[in-house]
């Protein structure tokens, strides 16, 4: 996201054979431009590397000092923690934060990009977004700054993205369990395609290998990040002829599902089964027993995402478009050495 | 919040001895008006019942299709649940939701009202706000529609406010515990001055009286709504010479603190102590044992608050400015008959 020099609006207009006002309309998200004309203009702006001038932004374009946070679902403290970090920085900068939930991926449509432009948003922070190429192009083409937090897919090169050290987090969880003496350690991830899941499972495998433990594919499960995802996966793990003595869950919410599966099976934590979560949401310290988990600095990820976005908005050059914040293993009471056989 | 007919901007300007543009500046939150002039104009608008005309609103005033949600702290699923309800309605209405956390009550200053006006907000939803008279006047004077959710203080008459049936909730919790055979039932509230606390404790007392149980003031405690508020109050309750056999906590987060106090005392739930929470946040079903709690329809409160705000914005007449949504007792596994002595 470096500062480029590109053609002017007039040059784009001339090349497209339209009035400058038409180019301006497309740039500012007005809808009264024929689809074909819009496409031509956007294609040209994209090809020629058109850069929205700051002067025009401060002048004709309405500036409403708004920043957008787009989140997949507002249904967990997970997103809330990121939101608090973003809010803190945005408020300090004297801007206001518009929050919207995408609810499902389909909603991240062109209409959404248009509405951001129409209300004069300075830029957007996208949380756990499966940013399809089409949307990425839409945002880039309109030169609307954006930052991705915890990207689901590998974002295209040059896309500013903030995440956590998921590989190191998965490694530390499995390393901790192996050090306690566990030899059959299971892992539950989120959806198999999620970037964060891949990195965590890779870290888990690496730790097992370092500890000289075999990797048993039957002990690796995938599910949603919620309570039921953990419950279903753990139930199936506990029904194995040679069940694990430890389970590394993909999220704290999944870990609560693992707790329930263990309880339903008439087993205890950590007596029969050790459990490690991921995230360190506030309730992790209140579960019974308190949950050992990999702390993900969600609030700080929100802070860094917002600061990065504001730097882009201000035309600053980023040293790196990818930032991974460190995870930490927080050892509580849900992990212990395995029962001696 | 009925439709009033009042003086025009020109009449206010004439009476104040200023230009119409000065009145307009005050209305729209511009800061380049002398404090004394602003005061005079505001006082006149307030006294004469000046109503911001819809025409002017659609015309000269910038409309950005924004609605503001102002929340005390974004630190719990409690606020998140309200937020999801508000977001749903605001999004359906094609508006965008600006979210800000007040962090502390002092921030709800005039500058905040100015910034709402400056960005052309349609109105505001205030969650758990101690709306001081001064701020109430500021909002009313500028005719900026607002709705209060779960007001801390009794809002002034005519102020649209959405809440839950806290009295009935407190009643149902204590009634449930009394019906199980408990005779020493404690209650923990939030801050003693909070309206919701007062109503819940009143409901609890009424249920004890209906059940023919004495009200022991030593069994009524107050604390913050968080984990530590419940922990501190429960520890002190369990140290009483004649401790309670049941504790009705003021929130689910407080209940997790009660769980910890019971655990630290070497007691079990519900064997030694029955516990009832309040809210039914998502984690209530995952605590060990799952928490019996009074469900507060937080999402629905957000929905109703947003719908009410939009009705006011559209100039509709409200049948009632106060709406209380029903609470429900959700019985899980943290309550049981007391151990026979």
From TrEMBL, chains A, B:
GO terms for molecular function: DNA-binding transcription factor activity; transcription cis-regulatory region binding. It comes from the Bacteria. Pfam families: LacI, Peripla_BP_3. Residues 7-61 form the HTH lacI-type domain. Keywords: DNA-binding, Transcription, Transcription regulation. InterPro entries: HTH_LacI (IPR000843), LacI/GalR-like_sensor (IPR046335), Lambda_DNA-bd_dom_sf (IPR010982), Peripla_BP_I (IPR028082). PROSITE patterns: HTH_LACI_2 (PS50932). The keyword Glycoprotein does not apply. The keyword Ribonucleoprotein does not apply. This is Transcriptional regulator. The lineage of its organism: Bacteria, Bacillati, Actinomycetota, Actinomycetes, Micromonosporales.
């Amino acid at each position: 996201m470096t500062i480029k020099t590109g053609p002017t609006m007039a040059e784009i207009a001339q090349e497209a054979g339209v009035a400058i006002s038409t180019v301006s309309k497309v740039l500012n998200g007005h809808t009264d431009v024929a689809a074909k004309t819009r496409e031509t203009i956007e294609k040209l702006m994209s090809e020629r590397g058109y850069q929205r001038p700051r002067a025009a932004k401060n002048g004709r374009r309405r500036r409403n000092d708004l920043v957008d946070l787009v989140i997949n679902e507002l249904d967990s403290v997970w997103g809330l923690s990121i939101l608090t970090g973003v809010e803190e920085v945005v408020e300090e900068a004297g801007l206001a934060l518009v929050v919207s939930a995408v609810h499902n991926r389909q909603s991240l449509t062109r209409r959404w990009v248009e509405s951001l432009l129409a209300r004069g948003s300075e830029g957007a922070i996208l949380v756990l977004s499966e940013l399809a190429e089409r949307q990425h192009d839409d945002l880039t083409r309109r030169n609307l700054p954006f930052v991705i937090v915890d990207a689901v897919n590998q974002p295209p090169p040059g896309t500013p993205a903030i995440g956590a050290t998921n590989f190191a987090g998965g490694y530390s969880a499995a390393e901790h369990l192996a050090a306690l003496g566990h030899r059959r350690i299971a892992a539950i991830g989120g959806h198999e395609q999620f970037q964060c899941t891949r990195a965590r499972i890779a870290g888990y495998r690496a730790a097992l290998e370092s500890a000289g433990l075999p990797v048993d594919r039957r002990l690796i499960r995938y599910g949603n990040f919620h309570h039921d995802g953990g419950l279903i996966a753990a139930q199936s793990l506990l029904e194995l002829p040679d069940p694990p003595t430890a389970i590394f869950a993909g999220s704290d919410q999944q870990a609560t599902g693992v707790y329930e599966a263990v309880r339903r099976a008439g087993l205890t934590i950590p007596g029969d089964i050790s459990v490690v979560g991921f995230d360190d949401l506030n309730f992790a310290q209140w579960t019974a027993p308190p949950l050992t988990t990999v702390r993900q600095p969600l609030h700080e990820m929100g802070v860094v995402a917002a600061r990065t976005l504001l730097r882009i908005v201000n035309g600053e050059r980023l040293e790196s478009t990818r930032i991974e914040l460190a995870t930490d293993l927080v050892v509580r009471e849900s992990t212990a050495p395995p029962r001696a056989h």
